[in-house]
# Entry
Amino acid sequence: MKIWKALGLAGLAGVAATGAVIARDQRKRSDLTPEEIKDRLHQRLGGDSGDRSDVSGTSAP
# Structure
């Protein structure tokens, strides 16, 4: 019976730790301005290319 108690406590600790990580990440994201978010997305996608004619990758006729 002690093993189940230990597993239950370990599970609760894991859930609490995960919640703390998620809350910290959410606070970090909520501090960003819309311009900072836009800049980060452009950096992640590989640059500030001004060509936004077709996002799907197919060319328009």
Notes: The two ends are 70 Å apart (CA to CA). The mean pLDDT is 81. DSSP finds two helices and no strands in the chain. The chain has one domain: 2-44.
